[in-house]
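Researcher: Structure prediction, please.
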Amino acid sequence: MAHIAILGCGWLGLPLAKHLIKLGYSVKGSTTTATKTTILQQHGIVPYLVKLQENSTEGDIKGLLEGCETLVIDIPPGLRSGANENFTEKIKKLIPHIEAARVKNVLFVSSTSVYGNNQGTVTEATTPRPVTESGRQLLETEELLWGNKNFSTTIVRFGGLTGNDRHPVNYLAGKENIPEPDAPVNLIHQEDCIGIIAAIIKENAWGEVFNGVAPYHPTRKEYYTEKAKQKNLPLPLFSREEASGVKVIAADKVTEVLKFRFKFCEP
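Model: Predicted structure follows.
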């Protein structure tokens, strides 16, 4: 039985852990909330309280990583709150623990935000040009992990995340003068995120970069208007300005290399 550690059992990490257990893996998972350890245990996940800081890694990180061949790092940079924290520095403090535990493989959950304002069809070969602080620190972290020769790293860059309890239209409903009406959407459903990560682990696809975006790219205006109607939400009203550019994130590599098939082509 392969042993996997998931650093960050949140919106994506918890259902991922549950799915991997169903596939026969032994899974350890971390949380920063003491009350959540019971929830992890109820689902067969061995729980650990771990919190990454810029100056240290708090909690039983040794126990989390011990005996695990693969580590999935699934923690958001958390920069939207305005906190002056450095995500890359937190991962720097984590790396010695990864090395000490002799973890063989690291899967880092990143974001297509690293591509910034690149236009046209964007593939894994496209040079990232992040424009946000979150995107810049994600790219720095990717490079930090990628450059370490003590373990193999695979990076998966997910587009906008959707799920049964989470969808961007919930935040756009009823708003006015929304920009970029003609820009294509680049989204992915939670279940497909989980499927891609599971496929990477199953296929031992280490030392790779994958884009995780559903092959469905209508305009923002078309897509969010239709979704608002489906959910009986107030229609979002878009500006009349033309798109400043068209960016389509291509995820052909996950279908070609991993033989993955999207469950939600329309997320």
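Model: The chain has one domain: 3-163+188-216+247-257.
Researcher: Thanks, that helps.
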